[in-house]
User: Fold this.
Amino acid sequence: MKKIVKAALATTAFAAAFAAAPAFADDAAPALKVTGSATLATEYNLRGISQSDLDPAIQGGITVTTAPGFYVSTWASSLAGNGSFGGSNMELDLIAGYSKAVGPVTLDGGVIYYVYPGTSNHDFFELYGSVAGKVGPVNAKLGPSGAPAQKNPNPPARNNGHNIGVYTDLGLPISGTPLTLKGHVGYSSGNSIYTWGKDVVDYGVGADLAYGPLVLNVSYVGTDLNKDFADANYNLGSELGRKLTRGRVVATLTAAF
Assistant:
């Protein structure tokens, strides 16, 4: 628990440093826009796999966006309290990208550098992109991701490991209510430490309940990994890999600012 609190304090301090920066606004429109969020989660779920060994997680992030559409962002989460990821109990993401509205859709793309403080062989980077827009009443997003061959995010037997993937997110606001129904499906392939040479399908279905700046999400998430493969490759901490990858309920409470 002490390590989770330390991770939360580090995230808060990092966010506060950004939030204290001036926005440099002019009379027409701000040259910079600063937004952020803080989240309490029953676990840190990434592509259907628990990154916190099914433990609760504290998360937070800050994004600085320029008027032309370029942005930089940082996001952090506590990890498993027993020292997964080479002993790190925190993931810190450093993000840079560009977003632009083109007609009825919004294009977005950039790079994420995943940092695991206190380790020397887990950091890696990933490229991402997406196109988002309306399909009837549904908010839809489709995008690819890819981590080129890198030494750090792979076990010794897979020094040339890589990972590619594609995903779609769907949201259906329920008119006259604070509810939005959510759906997600993703596919990943490659021989990085995430896929371990396996094609992985992850999924999620749930709902958002919004109240002012607060959003409560409850979702059922998981992967299609079988028990034996999951136990052999995804045992991040004290729990068996199957428990970390099978279908389960995850809840998050997020405050935006």
Summary: The longest helix spans residues 2-19.
